[in-house]
Amino acid sequence: MTMLKGANVPVPADSVRVEVGWRTGPGVPDVDASALLLASSGRVRSDGDLVFYNQARHASGAVRHEGKRPAGGAVTDTLAVDLARLEPAVEKVVVAASADGGDFGRVPGLCIRVLDAGSGAELARFDSRDATVETAFVLGELYRRQGAWKFRAVGQGYDSGLAGLATDFGITVDEPQAPPSRSAPAAPVPAAPVAAAPPRPAPQPVRLSKVTLTKEAPTVSLAKQGGTSGTMRVNLNWQTRKQSRGWGSKLGRAMAMHADLDLDLCALYELTDGSKGVVQALGNAFGALHRPPYIHLDGDDRTGAVETGENLTVNLDHKERFRRVLIFVTIYEGARSFAGLHATVTLTPQHGAPVDFSLDECTLPSTVCGLALITNQGGDLVVQRESRFLVPERGVSPQRTVDQAYGWGMQWTPGRK
């Protein structure tokens, strides 16, 4: 159902998927979807009521950011909303979009779709066609009315980006701090000791900064983004297209995917002392965080969900020990290729801006893909987007294939998990 601005329709579903879509191309800014959970005051109750790329899951579990999915010349960024699980105090869920690297006047085909999460049926659609200099948009809102849920097409633009939009709804945004005053400090005034309760920790503001790696801008310095210490979480999440008899081409049928797909996130490492190895679920080589190799695989996930997925943790307090680290992914079972797989990689330093990128469309019978290469350049770790699909030769394992492609020079033996 295509809607006009200001129109509303009932939402006869307990759970919905909200897709923000647009057409991509040269010079088109990246777009990010977000959701704000509002109380009857029209404002958030806390900073946790913003769900977006840096805060992908609401504490209630009712709203989740599921990430982007490219398909041909278009991209969708999806939010999952379980209306039945929303807390009674939440009166409205505002769905917004923000442009990264330009304004919405340069984003063709911007739209929002509300789908029944069970059947996939489209319940509502609104196409935004009048954008000019706006860098953020409230595209629509889900709201309660007499015990039922409805959707309204809004189309309200902001020229202050996600930060301005979020601030208007009560979110405290992390902004650069002003430099301290250079004036001389006042002389201390003696005071009698007074017993007092320990101060409460100040709430941490929401960090909106991020880095998106593309083919045109494939590298980033972690030091320049503030990621110089603590830990860095590397997350891989994915969505799959189920096998279909309607796939017409011979290549398509050969690459058809199954529902029980199992991907493994792995890392080849080389330390400055010359030691090399692999961190992976295969062979239970989960690594270690506080001793070499300072990389740990959290577990073996089979869902690909954005709040879980496959996760590696890298100890940046020992960054001087790394010479290079290659993050890669293999298909363990459930498919013969990455074709039809839509995956997102996010590197989140504890004290820096997240770095993310999506994999390219796979057109090869590939079962192993180099994701990101991290190299030590003068004490700074530099991340390079790879998105490199590799095709193993007959009888050659995916691990040995990626080793040969990147010149790691390791000896491999069969392993199981």
UniProtKB/TrEMBL annotation:
Location of region: Disordered: 174-204
Positions of the TerD domain: 2-169
Cited InterPro entries: Stress/Tellurium_Resist, Tellurite_resistance_TerA, TerD
Pfam families for this protein: TerD (PF02342)
Segments of skewed composition (Pro residues): 187-204
CDD domains: TerD_like (cd06974)
Domain of life of the native organism: Bacteria
UniProt similarity note: Belongs to the CAPAB/TerDEXZ family.
Protein name, as recorded: Tellurite resistance protein TerA
Species, as recorded: Streptomyces radiopugnans
